[in-house]
Amino acid sequence: MPLSQQKKPFLKKISKGLTVSSVITGSTFLHGPPVLALGLTKLFKKSSKVDETNIQITNSWLSVNNWLIDHVLPETQWNIEVDPALDLNLQGRYLMTCNHQSWVDTTVNQYFGLTRMPLTRFFTKWELIFIPFVGQAFKILGFPMMKRHNKQQLAKNPALKYRDLEEARRACEQLLSQPFTLLNYLEGTRFTAQKHHQQKSPYHHLLKPKAGGLALALNILGKKIDALVDMTIVYPDGAPGYGEFWLGEVPRIAVHLRKIELPNWVLEGDYQDDADYRERFQHWVDQIWQEKDQIIDTITQRYVQEQAL
């Protein structure tokens, strides 16, 4: 192949990377300062109007990202399936679970949800508050930010456990003043083959779920939400890195959404202090995860069959 032809794909990648990075950087500097400035006013007076305006600004930022996905990354093929029983709207209140493989997962969630669901928040680490713009925006927009303590810290000061729970409770309750989607990555970390092996996970495509966060959210919000939504993300060609995604190197993405019915008993127990309830709840989450594992199997096999044709 002539050298000039070899350079074309490389130059195209460089051009795409510069376009995407320039637009996202410019959009962030355009949308970020107003969110932070309005957020500072909440130190003096809480205002639902300020919250609504910040969400509108954030959705505007997300719409720029989605425009890039549609117009600069058209080679990525999306297959989105939504359970007919799942009636989503922008004024709803939703809890969402999802498998976690890549930083791209959050972008996928935002791409799907922008025109279908309220702004998605997720449980995040308190330490992110120190990241310029991003950390402060998380706090202002009502992302539940958790201070995680290790076993040694909790052994020295058991009260830390309940302090963290109370902070999470307050953060969740603040969401009730507006429509929301609260996302919980139950695996707690991104899937890798090494982690899967170390855990001896009983699932083919998933790590073991950590049920405590979902139990807490359901305890606080369960009777006030419109649905518990389970999102499954599949990358048939392998989980991509964030840079790979924005360079258009992800050929296919599959997204499956379903509604999880909530048994009455789920909303009536105490996960922290009732061992019987905790065991029953963990078994219920295990069933959800088994079903999700099967969904991933079905989607993966469909792509394998298409590839063989």
Automatic annotation (TrEMBL):
Phospholipid/glycerol acyltransferase domain segment(s): 94-236
GO molecular function: acyltransferase activity
Pfam families: Acyltransferase
Lineage top rank: taxon: Bacteria
UniProt-listed SUPFAM superfamilies: Glycerol-3-phosphate (1)-acyltransferase
UniProtKB keywords: Acyltransferase, Transferase
NCBIfam families: PRK14014.1 (NF010621)
Name of the protein described by the UniProt record: Acyltransferase
Source organism (scientific name): Acinetobacter larvae
